[in-house]
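Hi R.,

Here are the chain sequences for the assembly we discussed:
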Amino acid sequence: MVAHLLRLKLTLLRNGLRRSPWQLVGMAIAGLYALGMVATLIIALLLLRTAGPVTAHTAVVLGGSAAVLGWAVVPVVASATDMTLDPARFITFAIPMKQMLAGLALGGLIGIPGLATALVALATVATWSRGVVPALAALAGACLGVMTCIVLAKVVTTATASLAASRRFKDISAIAFLVPMVLLGPIVAGVGRGISASTGFLPGFARTLSWTPLGAPWSLGGDVASGRPGQAALKLLVSVAVLAALAWCWKLLLERALVTPPYAGAAKRRGGRLGLFGVLPATPAGAVMARSLTYWLRDPRYSGSLVVIPLLPVVLAFQGTQTGNYGSLAVLAPMSGFILAWSISADVSYDNTAFALHLATGVRGVADRLGRALACLTFALPVVLVFSVGYAAFTGSWTGLPGQPGTQPGDPLHRPGPVLGGVGPVHRHCPAAGGQPVQEAAGQRWADPGRTVRWNAGPDGPGPSGGRAGGGPGGHGQRPVRLAQPGCGNHPGPGPFPGRRPAGRQVARCPRARTPGTGYRQPLTAPEREPHGSRDPRRQQADRKTCGRRH
Amino acid sequence: MTAPIPGQAPDSSSVAALSLRGLAKRFGGKIAVDGISLDVPAGSFFGIVGPNGAGKTTTLSMATGLLRPDFGTAVVHGVDVWRHPLEAKRLMGILPDGVRLFDRLTGEQLITYAGLLRGMDKAVVAARVGELLAAMDLSQDAGTLVVDYSAGMTKKIALASALIHAPRLLVLDEPFEAVDPVSAANIRSILDRYVDSGGTVIVSSHVMDLVQRMCDHVAVVAKGRLLAAGTVDEVRGGASLEDRFVQLVGGHTHTEGLEWLRTF
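And here is the predicted structure of the full complex:
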């Protein structure tokens, strides 16, 4: 049974890669990245073999503790854990709990994070190969440590499964995840400086950690090598007890989770609050603007770029403190304007097939574009003004102020025109609704290309018959259904890719469409994310067909 | 091009609510719809039935201006859908199947949005939204985001969005899928009253029983062709609609094999 589960995991991985060569490329890139990290760490651990026992002990315990902590935290926050072996999928099969736990735990090792952790952990054996006994102790520690990582991750994800399945949590965690990503540079530098400033404090910290579940398994080799077999035995006991307790917790949680599936109920709320729809003018353009603004605030795919904006000055100012040259702050205003304005180029892709409502109501294209552009300007204009004035005040040179918002390429006053013109040709891949702004690249987590609504502002000018829209909402059966355009085919501005629109009625192709960076999407695991769940298999099949033909 | 139309609806005295002529669509090598001509009489409750992949949704998408046909025309109350789409769309309310909604809006906001997109007056929209929510039994959840709705509630809110502008023709693709029996009965009585007062409803469905009870006219579509059309009694000719359907479409396999399923 355990072998079955492992084979299943491998088959899923292989089939996932088989779906498109680009997945292989993405996997290869992720693999290379991981390989680089792993190789660096392994070499470091090999070099530590010749270092003093205190230094080596400190480094191994701290690194190991960080790994355990990472395995506990990242799966929850990223909520992009590998769900290919989701226990919920095995409910209908009568699998003995023990075998299932073993299979799932070992299955957790397959995949880039698991393999990387295991390899690096095994390298600690080399660090402590200063004798047979220390090496054996390190080996036992490494095995215990890796299993602790995996089981801890399972416990945490199982415990938070019902929480993680709620839409609100997903929305918030998606944005919360962005913040440390954007601030990665300052954080890494800060931690690095902190470590180098407090080298005297670290060995003591590592000793303390080595008595906790986080560091205990990683301490075994070091303790034996330094001639503290008694401590090593106690820590072995701690590690084994922790692992057993975790496994027991996991079993209990899993038993409970299997019969109480995640319930993502939302509190009932009566109406009466129209929000922005009650404030903005009751015209089609006003309605589109109200809808877009609501989405900017409620949809993590949009609010992700809003969250980045206040972090930009932090990152740039940090860069200034490092180099002593604050010149890079000059790009702040244009850059934030560019980010905000550019984000609406994916507007129709983000709409996905919901765009059918615009078609069905026959809203004019002018109203559609105007509403979207105004919604974007509502944020972009004040942000750029504040940043420009702020920069001028910071430098004390007000002569550059008019040039700040005016001449830069990212100027939101100029940008929405071309960008919206580009909305047509640039159909691109983006996370589906309910997806996250940033997603990891493991295995199955690729976009269904056909989900992107393609929308081509027609080459033959305005008028209802102007544009022929391509489309891949496979929901209409087993084929792509082309969504036609609302009563317009006009561009508000010259599109940035005029040459890419082929003559005639072809759907524009865009090389950007397959860029892996925009292609990640979460699998539709939770039912509430996909109201038409019963149709999903067919749709995905249709998407695959679409993909094969189009690209 | 034109498929034979056995049992063409005889009562086309008034102008048809929807008139299709030689509608055809090809996707790559697959012909999804192969020349369908059909008249839906005004004031009728018209069912379109067919097996999976028959071309129902494709036909309805082409008839409602969501999908450009390769050949043929669709005319709604005398207005050509693809020549005058704005006028035609004003006459129609559409419930497409399997498309997403703007689900980060609350139910109330979504219906309001549909009304405002059609350029309706704010006060009228507000009044109708309240009534629609009550009729769909969604008043208690009006302030909940649509993304948090159940499948049946989502269907109902989409239907409400299609009704807000009081269309003359309603085109509903699988309107009762995942809708609970009580809500389905409510929706049916709404639709019945709508038809009684002169509106036209076109529904597509897999559920023969439902179509037989609810509709007065029916069309059977399979493999992109129209096999039969007319009043329900004409089409079923004494048998149940389900039997007649299976007979028309064919493909009922007598389940041989699977003997082991009886051995336990």
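Chain A touches chain B through 64 residues (CB under 8 Å). Chain A has 23 helices and no strands.

Let me know if anything looks off.

Best,
T.
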